Amino acid sequence: MKRSLFGRVWPNATAVILFIGFVFPVYWMFATAFKPTGDIISEDPVWFPTDITFEHFKTATGVDNFWTLVTNSLTVTVLAVVFSLAIALAGAFALARMKFKGRRGFIIGFMLAQMAPWEVMIIAMYMIVRDADMLNSLVPLTAFYTMMILPFTILTLRGFVAAVPAELEEAAMVDGCTRAQAFRRVILPLLAPGLMATSLFGFITAWNEFALVLVLNKEAEAQTLPLWLTSFRTVFGDDWGATMAASSLFAVPILILFVFLQRRAVSGLTDGAVKG
Q1: For 65, how many CA atoms within 13 A lie in the half-sphere containing its CB?
Q2: Nearest alpha-carbon partner for 163 in 272, 2, 1, 247
Q3: What is the pTM of this model?
Q4: Average pLDDT, the chain
């Protein structure tokens, strides 16, 4: 009886501890964004803000070129996700359905690309963009972000395509559909969990990327929001209120996207079952 009780208690206790560990920094970030400066720098921590202020948000959004940076981040992120999904759908279908020489090596190459740290290639990327005279442009960022997302997207969608019985596609083709029509009408609707999961992963990856834009885009008008978070340093130290407000604003799009996609995204990352 004691062993059975312990077996029920320790997983729940572990889950609660992990939940607190992950959620508390997020809560502290949002709470600090609404605290007056006096409460932030107080020696005694103020756990629950009583005097709510929006001054830190005004400071954060009052930075020069704020809306330009928002537009830049949304542009490169959304385009990178769309391009990677379009390419990955075709690539995943080819890897899952077609047999060709070098297929196994192709898959291994994508796995290696997924494991490779992009930071070690920044110098090479910089030289390529510099020689192409495209520094301070959003085009190279979009292209590189697409390549960052692509390996994971292809490998994930390949598993979903392989999980769809080929007989469904063949039956559609017998009924008069072309291969493209069979893919669009039969396979694509069944890939929704995988599309949601890879879209969320790709959005987070591109939205949070910092090192590449720091090197390639030196002009303020060509930068993105991750660099905006570093702009709240003064000669007297860090403006923690504005920094936390900026971090909260930066996290909101990801939180909203996750709320809308979380059910399908979680199922997309954990299984790959065919639903019809």
Answers
A1: 15
A2: 272
A3: 0.81
A4: 83
